[in-house]
Amino acid sequence: MSCLMVERCGAIAFESPEQNAICFCTLGDAQVRGQAGVLSERRGSFPFIDFRLLNTTANSGEIGTKKKVKRLLSFQRYFHASRLLRGTVPQTSLHLLDEDYLGQAGHMLSKVGTWNFDIFLFDRLTNGNSLVTLLCHLFNTHGLIHHFQLDMVKLHRFLVMVQEDYHNQNPYHNAVHAADVTQAMHCYLKEPKLARYLTPLDIFLGLLAAAAHDVDHPGVNQPFLVKTKHHLASLYQNVSVLENHHWRSTVGMLRESGLLSHLPVEMTQEIEQQLGSLILATDISRQNEFLGSFKIHLDNDALSLEDAEHRHFILQIALKCADICNPCRVWEMSKQWSERVCEEFYRQGDLERKFELEISPLCNQHMDTVPAIQIGFMTYLVEPLFDEWRRFTDNTPLTEAMMSHLRKNKARWRALHHNQHHRGDDGSGQRSEVVEAGP
Ligand SMILES: [Zn+2]
């Protein structure tokens, strides 16, 4: 059962002739197939772990006990283990920061509820710990630590696990995206229409779902996992494969950390189920289903936020909005996210080309330009959802700001698209006017 390394150029791919399947990882996540071939513990989005490598590391001194070796089986945690994991666990998030940056990061946190919050800068100021730092802060400011009597050490351990299980080699689906979605979710939870009805449990679930909604994302989409016969596609029977994995991984980490172990079992079960319902709502293939329900509720003025089910539905919509809100950010940040997501698409396309698989839509870097991808994304997914969100929130300043950025950003992509192709095609097959875009 040998593993054949067939490529090493930014991404490493492995071919398993026995299973006629391909598994891969990005540079830096170097791994080869384990002797046993199958993981005995929770399996991540990367199927193959080198047990020899783990043993070597285990003998090196720092990590020696059987228990600790077992922990390494999540290799994201192993390869990305920060000094936070190796050292003592601080009591508050800001203690994680280097002295020089503490003041600046702390200052940024005082403005965490503003829409132009620069998550990239925050990530740099926190030495790549934006997700842990942000969540500790938000849990504290929302009073969740006190309300749920959370153990700070367990909370920190859980958040580090989540952050470390994101693949920072992914240009887009990494821990900074999770932090960005969480920050957006925090902004949405403060919307007056919603805020006055939200219970601590709603806020806890909303923030937790946002933080964990893409955990252990492999950097490729579901069709890729299906056509390469990835074990996750088989496990979840080709239905919301990634989202199911993000959810079940989160539940695993919740249990492993013991974060909720002091709560009644009925309550933890309820939390796990609702977390699943929220994370599964981010499956973009279910967009029309949610959009249709949202429209019907708004048309009939049928949303009653005293009702827990209706609040849950709005939390699902809010998370969906937060997940695709990049085009509603200021241009400088929006553009970065656009380039990152396209880079991730192109990497998938390159792998598909290499393995002579059909190149997925939007993944061909020779055909699918960033402006064309973005204009299509805005037209068919972002605008329809945010038009309804605007109806729900009643044109609040935040919604107005988001819609304004969305309009301006689309105009800029159109101008760039026009410059590239010397025509005004907006990617939707219809001619459109090229707008002079401002900053
Ligand atoms: Zn996401």
TrEMBL record:
Residues 97-420 form the PDEase domain. Its cofactor is a divalent metal cation. Its EC number is 3.1.4.-. Pfam families: PDEase_I. Binds 2 divalent metal cations per subunit. Site 1 may preferentially bind zinc ions, while site 2 has a preference for magnesium and/or manganese ions. Keywords: Hydrolase, Metal-binding. Residues 417-439 are annotated as: Disordered. Gene3D superfamilies: 3'5'-cyclic nucleotide phosphodiesterase, catalytic domain. It comes from the Eukaryota. InterPro entries: HD/PDEase_dom, PDEase, PDEase_catalytic_dom, PDEase_catalytic_dom_sf, PDEase_CS. Belongs to the cyclic nucleotide phosphodiesterase family. This is Phosphodiesterase. It comes from Huso huso (Beluga). The lineage of its organism: Eukaryota, Metazoa, Chordata, Craniata, Vertebrata.
